[in-house]
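As noted in the main text, all predictions were made from sequence alone. Below is one such record, for Synaptotagmin-2.
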Amino acid sequence: MGILSTITGFLGFGIGTSIGLFIGYYIFIYFQSIHVKEPTFSPLVEQDLKTVQQLLPEIPLWIKNPDYDRLDWLNKFVEYMWPYLNKAICKTARTIAKPIIAEQIPKYKIDSVEFEELNLGSLPPTFQGMKVYSTDEKELIMELSMKWAGNPNIIVAVKAFGLRATVQVVDLQVFASPRITLRPLVPSFPCFANIYVSLMEKPHVDFGLKLLGADAMSIPGLYRIVQEIIKDQVAKMYLWPKALEVQIMDPTKAMKKPVGILHVKVVRALKLRKKDIMGASDPYVKLKLEDDKLGSKKTTVKYKNLNPEWNEEFKVVIKDPESQALMLTVFDWEKVGKHEKMGMNRIPLKDLTPNEPNELTLKLLKTIEPNDPENEKSRGELVVEVTYKPFKEDELSKNAEDTNAIEKAPEGTPASGGLLVIIIHEAEDLEGKHHTNPFARLLFKGEERKTKHVRKNRDPRWGETFEFTLDEPPTNERIYVEVISASSKLGLLHPKETLGYVDINLSDVVSNNRINGKYNLIDSKNGRIQIELQWRTP
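Prediction:
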């Protein structure tokens, strides 16, 4: 009986369980609760702002606010330029932090605080949107929404009481809304004199801090205290209306318009010092205005000559003859390495009588400091002719437009044509597979010209001029310039290789008379070449 009852009990449990599951499944499938509602669907455009923000908390600012513009182009630009921006920002940060640290450390009896490592990492910030304000002032105001989750390597070394400790910042996150103001707007490139950066609200800053290799932020309460201190200190210095000011140029000088032209003729140099091993020098002259953003003008190179004659003329635009001065520097040209300075001098424009030619013999000095004892040594002399010609009242606007005018073609040039001048200045970042001994090869209308060879140099300077007399403007012509490396050793293996080339249309130089630019070399990784083109008419 005991066995039979046990078997019957197991059968009853199995049958009952099966029947219960079947009935439960039937009720779940065919009977619905009256309290369950069908889900409703509606487009996002029909929702209010609060609901959308709850559904999509990371929605870009340019969608939330129609006043903000989308910045995909800026994010692409920052991503491409980030390796270079990283170095520039770190350099600026060191410069800004240095006086602040020097002012604060005496209060805490700290000997020194310095950056041992400062690198912002490989991840650039992203900009969620930008709003531009229109004002009646000469300024441009932009508000940006920035988010940055970076992988920086920032190590700060602190010395105090004879001990040294290092603090490393890791996993940095910064969310900020900076206001950038370009003011004042001026008619000189880059068209603004100062940059002002303010924060419209306290920034969100999150980071890890390693002290002596240990995670200092794991200490209870320290994380929140450090965060609040940083927010308060940054807000104290840069929260609007306070701002970080970065001066780009002197606005008083930038607003000034050209008032005259300085005609400079570099005549000759006398008794220059020997710089080369062979007992000679390869001199040339650079001239530019002090504190002027424009590049220098320079003469041709006179090889192996201690008493060179140039007789080359230049025109320099003058904006403030009372404060500006002309700097003249003589260099010794070198095939490899930096060109050595042989001497210099300056001509204050206020010492020149307007419209009166002056022939000046300038003693070449080591520096422009009047009391420098090094200036007593003989470095030779430089002879120049200068004439300052101020504009007349009715010529101010006209002459301001002609500051880039070039000299006329020589006599005998066809009346319907002109003189095409091609100056191959220099190249940079050249890289050969087997050797880098570059020279430039120029092809124009079937004629071939070549510059000199420069041995073992990735950044050669040629400064060579080629002239072509033409019967008609080369509107539909092109020039082909190829940079070639020739092996310096005898042999048939890899005698020459191409380092890159450019193909330039001449229609622009006919219209503008002069073009001076750097061109990216085709079939070269990073190589560029600087070529100046001039079209001189009779």
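The first helix runs from residue 2 to 30. The first strand starts at residue 112 and ends at 119. These features were considered when defining construct boundaries for the mutagenesis experiments described in Section 2.9.
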